[in-house]
Amino acid sequence: MPTSLPALPNSRTEADGSAVVRVLSYNIRSMRDDTAALARVITACAPDLVLLQEAPRFFRWRKKLTRLAAASGQVILSGGGTAAGPALLCSLRATMERTEDVLLPLTPGLHRRGFATAVVRFGKARVGLLSCHLSLQKDERYEQGGALLDRLAGLGAPHAIAGGDLNERPDGPTFRRVAKDLQDCWATSPWGGEHTSTPAEPRQRIDALFATPGIEVLGCGVPDGLPGVTRDDLRAATDHLPVLAALRIPAA
């Protein structure tokens, strides 16, 4: 992984009403690791939007998620236990229009999955959001990929961003199904590292950010080497590496 990175665009609002936003997708393994390191990584990425997977789901999950949000300069939008793990955080720059937690059909013997969704505004720029953690079982995962596209289209926003742990590499059928309709942000504008699993020896990309075609991808990748993001923190925070993107969302 790189030791230094070119600058990623900072958050801003353009003269034409479009908004540059920084979006982070991160599997945090139920905050079972070093939560101080996790908060430091999120803070250093300076995100406007955080798409979490494996957020706390059980005993006092809301309190745990609230503490993480506060420690990293964010507020909770949606998700957590009510979405079976995915969650959304945002900075105070975002204005929330609505949120919805979605539970997907349960396959007997498999883990319950869900989506955390929201529609937010940055000035005149309006965008739908979806965080997901897809199944380990390939057939169920493929169906969930289709549900992701349907749900994103149903948010009723002119632009949309999805992110999460797909449990599949880019050459897999579900990843390709999603990337056929949406921009795979790393493939569109690579920045930083590619592989997200595992932090100690990253060899595969199973976590990704996607955007609808009208969004301009200014850079996307693993922020190893970003000022304030240390390899020690990345290894201590959780068992995945985060994906950070800068995106320009047109004015509605």
TrEMBL record:
Domain (Endonuclease/exonuclease/phosphatase) ranges: 24-240
One function term, GO molecular function aspect: endonuclease activity
Superkingdom assignment: Bacteria
InterPro entries, per database record: Endo/exonu/phosph_ase_sf, Endo/exonuclease/phosphatase
Keyword annotations from UniProtKB, A to Z: Endonuclease, Hydrolase, Nuclease
Protein name per its UniProtKB record: Endonuclease/exonuclease/phosphatase family protein
Taxonomic source organism: Streptomyces ziwulingensis
